[in-house]
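Journal club side-thread
Mid-discussion, someone asked how the predicted structure for our own chain would compare to the paper's figures. Pasting it here so we can look after the session.
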Amino acid sequence: MSVRTTASGTVAALLGGCVLLPAAQAQAAAAQDSPVVYAHRGASAYAPENTLAAVDAADDLGIAWVENDVQLTKDGVLVVLHDTTLSRTTDAERVFPGRAPWAVKDFTAAEIAKLDAGSWFGARFAGARVPTLTQYLRRVERNRQKLLLEIKSPQTYPGIEKETLRVLREEGWLDRSHVKHRLIIQSFGAESVKNVHVQRPDVVTGFLGTPPVADLPSYAKFTDQINPSYTTLGADYVKAVQKLKGAHGKPLRVNTWTVNDAAKAAEVAGFGVDGIITNNPDTVRDATR
């Protein structure tokens, strides 16, 4: 065995014709093999989900990718909210009594902007608001983060794909750099994913769910990712997905959700998933790197 140390301290070791990578290169290679970590609704274990505070919490943890959900208000404004009703994560029932079931689609953007979307999570977040997609994009951009955007309940909001793409375009998120490196659009609705792909074939898309293996080739025609719940996942399924090439001619990727503990993160990483969506991005990152 011969060992050579450079002036910078890099060590290369050769043993039996095998090259042992310098420490920095080995760490980089390991990082490349680790699943990408996506902060689910922002770092939602640490701040109220889908708020700007949750975006910032992910940034504070050093997490590049955040996931969010978009829906349309009564007057056609895109807002970032997971549930199709306002009850769980805002004070809509108190502010607007008698408006049951407090569906997002029945409220204007101005009405939703009045709601407290933080107090339910903790007193220090009192006064946090439901952001519009425009506000959310600007915060993600300010933090130099990346976005996994979910179109929520598309059957409830005809035309939401077109409106989402319009806002993304206006905010500069459909230029070559963003499309190539910083944006994915996903949905549980296959037709919604198809609509995005037809309207902007360059955008990376993901389908949320676990289609039967036999049906995967049909999904590969319009999506780049198959993103299933971890409860439906195994190594064989991951391999079956990754064997196929997606809409952009690259192997289909698998991002699984919602994994919040270290043991489960290590398990799904062992299945070979490409990404893990989590409320606890620091826990998952540390368990899989």
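Post-session note: The first strand starts at residue 2 and ends at 5.
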